[in-house]
């Protein structure tokens, strides 16, 4: 694939997001969108809204797909808030960890299954019980043979899991309500992206970049734009659907907080429409277990950056020149249309009944999205 595939130009309001995306995408083609989502969730820890919960991420990638490669860059440069969490004991999480672990930190687990396996025979139940309570209320108590143990604070969790393992355990976790506390993020690669990364690794021509998040030491209040509420609630319904949950409240909090985290990363104290549009671009990965690749995100941004209406051929030509096969682009366009991620309309343009699909920026979430 050609190198110019990698970069995306974002709006002026999203320059810090642009830096994060392009720094990863230039080295690890396809993983830029995951880096953006992980960064938003991490910074949600510092959004001040009177609640004890941030946005917790469950990154679902096919086995060997790069969970470590996208989570490690965050850990390296942000050790003041991000902790690679891998500790587990039969007596539970709260009995062995320093209380500092629970005070405004981001816990990173590259392989959730391996971590849970170290917790002993009751590990999964204990693990879920802790997260269900602490992520919601900011405190947790556990009685053991060694007495009462209590922790308080606020954390955000970035956990990775292989798609194959997720499918195996998904039903049990839903029954334990663990999934209600996390935003599922289904991700995969196109064959072209997979080949590109494989070739660069083979050639020894790849360097794992580092992501430096803003050095924020205390929670900050971010102003919400009430004109965005209706649209944000439509996105919340989609996230609720993606979780297969009956609770709208948690989904609406997460969508709002992701928008606020975008504002905070981009050094603003109020949410603007570009923040909501960024979150809207990430929604496909939260609602579709088919697992979208980064090409979905790129197409949405390309249409958004275009000042004119586009037809399918325009999009196919643009991304074909950047190394994607026509079949791959057509598949992604079909998925985008089926999920109403971009406005599209069939119209006759020439004599003879030839129809073209016209695309334009998704300025409003369509009503059918909210059903």
Could you give a quick summary of the protein structure above?
The chain has 371 residues and is α/β, with parallel strands linked by helices. It has 13 helices and ten strands. β4 and β5 (147-152) form a beta hairpin.
Rg, alpha carbons = 21 Å
What strand line-up does the widest sheet have? 2-3-6-1-7
| Secondary-structure element series | HHEHEEHHEEEHEHHHHHEHHEE
Here the CATH topology of the largest domain equals Rossmann fold
Proportion of β residues?
Answer: 15-25%
- Main structural class: alpha/beta
CATH architecture of the largest domain: 3-Layer(aba) Sandwich
* CATH superfamily grouping of the largest domain: P-loop containing nucleotide triphosphate hydrolases
Overall mean confidence score, pLDDT: 82
Number of contiguous helices:
13
Low-confidence stretches: 362-371
Give the N-terminus to C-terminus distance in angstroms: 39 Å
Overall shape: globular
- How many beta strands in the DSSP annotation? 10
Please estimate the helix content. 40-55%
Number of domains: 2
| CATH domain class of the largest domain | Alpha Beta
Q: How is the biggest beta sheet arranged?
A: 5 strands, parallel
Detailed description of the structure:
The structure is a single chain. The chain is of the alpha/beta class and 371 residues long. It folds into 2 domains: 3-293, Rossmann fold (3-Layer(aba) Sandwich), CATH 3.40.50; 296-370, Arc Repressor Mutant, subunit A (Orthogonal Bundle), CATH 1.10.10. 44% of the residues lie in helices and 15% in strands. The chain is built from 13 helices and 10 strands. The chain has helices at 15-25, 32-43, 67-77, 112-117, 123-137, 163-175, 191-202, 229-243, 248-265, 273-287, 294-305, 312-320, 326-338, and strands spanning 57-61, 82-84, 103-109, 139-144, 147-152, 154-162, 183-186, 310-311, 343-350, 354-360. Helix 1 packs across helix 2 (32-43), helix 2 crosses helix 9 (248-265) and helix 8 packs across helix 9 (248-265). The protein is globular and about 75 Å long.
């Amino acid at each position: 694939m050609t190198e110019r595939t990698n970069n995306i130009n974002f709006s002026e309001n999203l320059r810090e997001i642009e830096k994060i995306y392009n720094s990863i995408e230039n080295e690890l083609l396809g993983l830029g969108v995951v880096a953006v989502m992980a960064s938003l969730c991490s910074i949600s820890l510092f959004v001040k809204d009177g609640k004890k919960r941030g946005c917790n991420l469950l990154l679902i990638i096919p086995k060997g797909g790069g969970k470590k490669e996208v989570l490690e860059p965050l850990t390296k440069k942000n050790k003041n808030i991000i902790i690679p969490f891998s500790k587990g004991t039969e007596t539970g999480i709260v009995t062995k960890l320093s209380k500092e672990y629970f005070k405004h930190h981001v816990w990173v687990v590259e392989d959730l299954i391996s971590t849970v396996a170290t917790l002993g025979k009751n590990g999964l139940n204990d693990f879920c019980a802790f997260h269900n309570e602490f992520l919601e209320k900011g405190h947790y108590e556990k009685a053991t043979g060694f007495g009462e143990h209590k922790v308080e604070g606020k954390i955000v969790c970035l956990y990775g899991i292989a798609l194959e393992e997720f499918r195996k355990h998904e039903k049990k976790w839903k029954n334990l309500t663990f999934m209600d506390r996390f935003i599922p993020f289904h991700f995969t690669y196109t064959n072209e992206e997979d080949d590109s990364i494989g070739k660069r690794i083979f050639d020894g021509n790849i360097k794992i970049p580092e992501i430096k998040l803003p050095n924020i030491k205390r929670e900050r209040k971010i102003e919400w734009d009430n004109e965005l509420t209706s649209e944000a609630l439509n996105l919340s319904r989609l996230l609720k659907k993606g979780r297969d949950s009956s609770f709208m409240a948690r989904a609406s909090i997460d969508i709002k907080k992701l928008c606020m985290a975008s504002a905070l990363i981009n050094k603003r104290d109020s949410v603007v429409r570009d923040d909501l549009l960024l979150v809207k671009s990430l929604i496909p990965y939260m609602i579709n277990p088919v697992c979208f690749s980064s090409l979905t995100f790129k197409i949405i941004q390309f249409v958004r950056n275009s000042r004119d209406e586009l037809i399918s051929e325009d999009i196919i030509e643009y991304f074909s020149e950047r190394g994607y096969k026509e079949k791959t682009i057509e598949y992604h366009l079909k998925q985008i249309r089926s999920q109403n991620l971009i406005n599209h309309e069939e119209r006759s343009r020439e004599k003879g009944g030839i129809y073209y699909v016209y695309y334009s920026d998704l300025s409003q979430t369509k009503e059918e999205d909210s059903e």
